[in-house]
Write a structure and sequence with these properties.
The radius of gyration is 21 Å and the shape is globular. It has a 3-stranded antiparallel beta sheet. The chain has 365 residues and is mainly alpha-helical. Helix 6 runs parallel beside helix 15 (342-360) and helix 13 packs parallel to helix 15 (342-360). It has helices spanning 6-9, 13-40, 44-63, 67-71, 74-91, 111-129, 137-155, 160-176, 181-198, 204-214, 225-236, 248-251, 263-296, 300-324, 342-360, and strands spanning 93-95, 98-104, 107-109. It has one domain.
Length: 365
């Protein structure tokens, strides 16, 4: 016999930590977007607050639905997101040569953000339902096929950053599903050897970003401009920063995309090393709490689901922070819960809701 103690299993830190990160993010966003608000006539902070409220509402709804019932519809979610990504190539809102956004009235969505979570759901469903034969090469190849279709569609937008984010999610879930390590390492090595072949398929701006990563000064006023300004901003912040809304790179508009992908540069400039470390610690604590849920749940599907979410959060946060510091190429990945954008925010909160959902439905014998 067993009982499920929903309230007893509830971990308040899984709510407190994301809210704390969101709260800090509003301070950074207000500072980053203050000048842009006058130019574009958009109150980015107010919009972000609206998306936070919508996200919390979505969280409340999600945690009250058994995650197993949500997984039952995984194939339908996958078909829908695949069709949306295909349609996006023809009717998506074009910005700077990319079709990543779907416009519905006054709302703009980025389907590739939702594709990450849907990939986690369908891999959880497929690998979980085949757990007794999961070590077969067939299941490994099927996982590659499921991921590969979304990867190709997202790359075609083009959105290389979101496409690459699918890979660590898949590999983390394959490890959690006990897929033989030789399959995983073999595919990684094969991908590494084949990577030079993908160079010819990259867009010109993507090639420039990779080359600029090796030498930012090769194009200081073009592809290397954002990285150079970001490194200046972070480096000039010192130990405690220049003060909120007092960063010169930020307030004087030297730093592009400072309210979205490069918002961590604002953190470094205005809050310094101490503020940057605080943000990193909060993310580490959140990911540790998520992994703790994967460790203590006795449901195989739940463990896979939470592992995929932990991988997604870790990869996005780590890559974004490394990107703004010039330690990785610019790939256009937002900083979860902090960067401006409703699609990223809702996806992240839905992911957290699913983690809480799994944790609340742990069985106690």
């Amino acid at each position: 016999m067993y009982k499920i103690h929903y309230r007893k299993n509830f971990d308040p830190l899984l709510i407190i930590l994301p809210l704390a990160i969101c709260g800090l993010g509003l301070f950074f966003l207000y500072s980053a977007s203050r000048g842009m608000q006058q130019i574009k006539g958009i109150d980015f902070t107010l919009r972000q607050i609206m998306w936070i409220l919508v996200s919390i509402l979505a969280l409340i709804v999600t945690i009250n639905i058994d995650f197993r019932r949500i997984l039952d519809w995984a194939y339908l979610y996958y078909i829908i997101i695949a069709l949306v990504l295909i349609a996006l190539l023809f009717i998506g809102g074009a910005r700077m040569g990319a079709r990543r956004w779907l416009n519905i009235g006054w709302l703009t969505f980025q389907p590739s953000e939702f594709a990450k979570l849907i990939l986690i759901l369908i891999l959880t469903f497929y690998l979980g339902n085949n757990r007794y034969s999961v070590r077969s090469s067939k299941n490994f190849l099927m996982a590659l096929l499921i991921t590969g279709l979304l990867f190709i569609l997202i790359v075609k937008e083009p959105d290389l950053g979101s496409a690459i984010a699918l890979l660590p999610i898949m590999f983390a879930m394959l490890l959690a599903a006990n897929i033989p390590l030789k399959f995983i390492l073999g595919s990684i090595l094969l991908g590494g050897f084949a990577s030079p072949l993908f160079w010819n398929f990259l867009k010109d701006y993507q090639k420039r970003r990779l080359l600029v990563f090796l030498n930012p000064n090769m194009d200081p006023l073009g592809a290397g401009y954002t990285v150079i300004q970001s490194k200046i901003a972070i480096g000039s912040g010192g130990l405690f920063g220049k003060g909120w809304m007092s960063g010169t790179q930020n307030q004087l508009n030297f730093l592009p995309e400072r309210h979205t992908d490069f918002i961590f540069s604002v953190v470094g400039e205005e809050w310094g090393f101490a503020g940057s470390l605080l943000v990193i610690i909060l993310f580490c604590l959140l990911i540790v709490r998520v992994l703790a849920v994967a460790e203590r749940t006795n449901d195989f599907h739940g463990r896979l689901l939470v592992t995929g979410i932990a991988a997604m959060l870790f990869f996005q946060a780590a890559v974004n922070i490394a990107m703004t510091a010039g330690l990785m190429p610019v790939v256009g990945i937002p900083l979860p819960l902090i960067s401006y954008g409703g699609s990223s925010l809702i996806t992240t909160w839905l992911s957290i809701a699913l983690v809480i959902n799994v944790d609340m439905r742990r069985t106690i014998f």
